[in-house]
Amino acid sequence: MINFPVSDWMPDANIPSGPIQDKWSKYKLEAKLINPNNRRKYTVLIVGSGLAGGSAAATLAELGYNVKCFCYQDSPRRAHSIAAQGGINAAKNYQNDGDSVYRLFYDTVKGGDFRAREANVYRLAEVSSNIIDQCVAQGVPFGREYGGLLDNRSFGGAQLKRTFYSRGQTGQQLLLGAYQAMEKEIAKGHIEMFTRHEMMDLVIVDGEAKGIVTRDLVTGEIKSYAGDTVLLCTGGYGNVFFLSTNAMGCNVTAAYKAYKRGAFFANPCFTQIHPTCIPVKGDYQSKLTLMSESLRNSGRIWVPKSRETAEKIRKKEIKPSDVPEEERDYYLERKYPSFGNLAPRDISSRAAKEACDDGRGVAITGKGVFLDFADEIKRMGREWIDGQYGNLFDMYEEITDDDPHETPMMIYPASHYTMGGLWVDYNLMSNVKGLHVLGEANFSDHGANRLGASALMQGLSDGYFVIPATLPTYLTSTKPGAVTTAAPEFKAAEDAVKERINKLLNVKGTKTVDSFHRELGLIMWDDCGMARTEESLMRAIERIPQLRKEFWENVLVTGTAEGINAELEKACRVADFLEFAQLLCYDALNRQESCGAHFRVEYQLPDGEAKRNDEEYAYVAAWEYAGVDELPILHKEPLTFDNVHLAIRSYK
């Protein structure tokens, strides 16, 4: 065990006083405002153009701010938000099945295993309905019932239908809505868009975030940009596991650079494992494919009751349809009858691992379970199924060469979303003044486990509705344009970026960047994945610095600093993962409890469920950087639960 340095100081979360249902309304009534004619004097730098960044850029530009938006993709349309499939939650109660703002708030806090900040979660639930209205007005083609009304489906952790969807491409359609809103403002000259630009560092002037340093991924140019505030909307860090459902370009660099510049990183060990992914096929696979959680509305998850039958399936001696009903273990329905196949992601993932560890996995590797649609096809018909999930079925068949209409899908848990992120207050501002963090890049709304269909909700909530109201709180305390790139801090940051790039290029080792990333991913998955122990975490903490040392001594980065160099891009990102991974393991080691997706094997109830320790760990763990080879400093934000009482989380 490691004794981490603990600070008694914690920045103010700036949560408004009063009843939780009045906090957001009270905040907006009392919030500072900026005259429309004065807004154009302020420059807002937005890093990331997915749902959080795109919606923030469009909305702030419409309000009159001067926006500069940066993304490393060749178009904002290629942000990873496009990969979200199943839907977006909102408390509209269109199905008249008992939903409400409070119910969505309650489900989210409970789903996060009581490790989220109540005030932020309630605001998210409150704003959710506005998101749907906004997106419908933009022309987002949500699924509709026969009569034309918006339809809903269920997602894990809820006993009602509150998820709006566009077949299996909800993220894509929502992103196109935000993208079109951005393009309108780009055409008006209110947004200056920088594609193929990657943020390499954050610039702090007099203790406040006032700019960024980027690398042009086409020309290789290192350049600084100054602004009055910086918004990080850069997603999560799931690719620290190498194999994940994230796009290969997704990385931790922007958030980690902010951390090294003084921003606290909160709850990095809260990493979500999604239960519904296509299983790993081979040692050299670089990406996993998500099958939407929405499929669990219609598919039943099972494995054979006997190891012998499972082995016959693995050897292709029998087909899944040959297994009689009485020899199938629908384990989620058995263990969690109230929620069945829609149990939350963390619980469903561990249940799948448990079945496979018992020798009853059905994939050739032994790590896979069935998601079977036979009953639903028989009940509703193939045409109805295709209307709900057609593109997902097509994608699965394209990848596996199996038709899920005829043969059950094979699925297995994989790294997906990250609930941890940079610490922010109620205004979405980090402890570094002027640095705001939106969407998956912050920690604030999901606790130790995110409910399905809530990622899109948070990203759009933060961008369309929260940051436009909270940003003036900071901007009114600053003089617009007071800092320019002439400040010496910009040149110092540029020089540090160039030095790091040259160092990487000059190693001239023998091992590829991908080989280091893959090795790091194996360490993280084996020792800090679905199940963690003190022993495994200490092993990872010992091995990661060794791998990092080898990286800086033996990595091979071909090409030059000028022009397009994909290997250099990857090397910069993997170098940050090799440092960040250690912080993640430190956080997991420090949290001596099981909660949500953070499952410490030593801390479980007699029935195998997570065992929280509310007396000692009901806090946000906000870590302060102290040096690559130094222990980070722990700051604790106590979590209070005045509206949802702490209880053992049960879905039985």
3D structure, described in words:
The chain is α/β, with parallel strands linked by helices. The protein is built from 18 helices and 21 strands. The protein has helices spanning 23-30, 36-39, 51-63, 101-111, 118-138, 170-188, 253-260, 307-314, 331-335, 345-360, 374-380, 382-400, 455-475, 488-507, 513-528, 534-554, 566-590, 614-617; strands at 43-47, 66-70, 88-89, 163-164, 191-194, 197-205, 208-216, 222-226, 229-232, 265-266, 271-277, 300-304, 328-329, 369-372, 409-418, 421-422, 435-437, 511-512, 555-556, 619-624, 633-638. The strands form six sheets. A five-stranded parallel β-sheet has the order 5-2-1-9-17. A five-stranded antiparallel β-sheet has the order 11-15-14-12-13. Strands 16-10-20-21 form a four-stranded antiparallel β-sheet. A hairpin with an 8-residue loop joins strand 20 (619-624) and strand 21 (633-638). The longest helix has 25 residues, at 566-590. Residues 44-456 form the FAD-dependent oxidoreductase 2 FAD-binding domain. Keywords: Flavoprotein, Oxidoreductase. Residues 517-651 form the Fumarate reductase/succinate dehydrogenase flavoprotein-like C-terminal domain. Pfam families: FAD_binding_2, Succ_DH_flav_C.
